[in-house]
Write a structure and sequence with these properties.
Strand content: 25-35%
CATH superfamily: Electron Transport, Fmn-binding Protein, Chain A
Distance between the termini: 37 Å
Shape: globular
Number of helices: 6
CATH architecture: Roll
Radius of gyration: 20 Å
Length: 221
């Protein structure tokens, strides 16, 4: 086991980012968030970032406190970004009560991140069905087996639930989508692009949705 780190060790941990190969400019964002985001996502993929579609999703809990977890972005359109989950999970219940969220893609190895903040709605049933059809059989079985976010006594109990589901669908080739499982889309009000720079003078550019398009603002780091 590695030795525990003390606060002094943490205080001295830092990375001095070098200048980016491509500058982040206001003009580059003038066409809206999607072209820049797709360009950066492609760079993350080419740069070997592990799970480049992973994003830290923040919702507001029943207790009024923020709650974060990592989910996978599984859809991208002009209206926003989509992910899929059990609607009765913690995040599903949070979004039903307060349909707003923030999601941050962290690509540390290329010194970039992108944060979406905005309104959340369920995707159409047909869209959830279409994505469900792309899921591997094991992932479909897992969705049926898990009452996501609810307590369970042990891993053994969870494995037993999966075994029951496997037996239930043993002769079913096309496992149906559970009615309580589907997609959400975040329609951004703001999208912020962050690029690491030397001396902590990072580039931050925020796009804010307006009635006429997107307002582009450079922020101090």
């Amino acid at each position: 086991m590695a030795p525990a780190r003390n606060s002094d060790d943490l205080a001295h941990m830092r990375v001095d980012y070098s200048g980016p190969a491509v500058e982040l400019t206001e003009d580059a964002c003038a066409a809206g968030w999607r072209p820049m985001f797709e360009s950066w996502l492609a760079a993350a993929i080419e740069g070997g970032v592990s799970e480049p579609n992973a994003m830290v999703l923040a919702t507001i809990g029943d207790d009024g406190l923020p709650a974060t977890r990592t989910v996978l972005c599984k859809g991208l359109s002009d209206t926003g970004i989509a992910f899929y989950t059990n609607y009765e999970s913690g995040k599903g219940r949070h979004l039903a009560a307060r349909p707003v969220a923030s999601a941050t893609f962290v690509w540390a190895s290329i010194a970039r991140q992108v944060t979406f903040r905005g309104d959340v709605s369920r995707v159409p049933e047909a869209v959830s069905d279409e994505y469900w059809e792309q899921r591997p059989r094991g992932a479909r079985l897992g969705a049926w087996a898990s009452e996501q976010s609810n307590p369970i006594g042990s891993r053994t109990e969870l494995d037993a639930k999966l075994s029951q589901v496997e037996e239930r669908f043993a002769k079913v080739d096309d496992i149906p989508r559970p009615l309580g499982w589907g997609g959400f889309e975040i329609t951004p009000r703001t999208v912020e692009f962050w690029q690491g720079r030397t001396n902590r003078l990072h580039d931050r550019i925020r796009l804010t949705r307006t009635t006429d398009g997107w307002d582009v603002t450079r922020l101090q780091p």
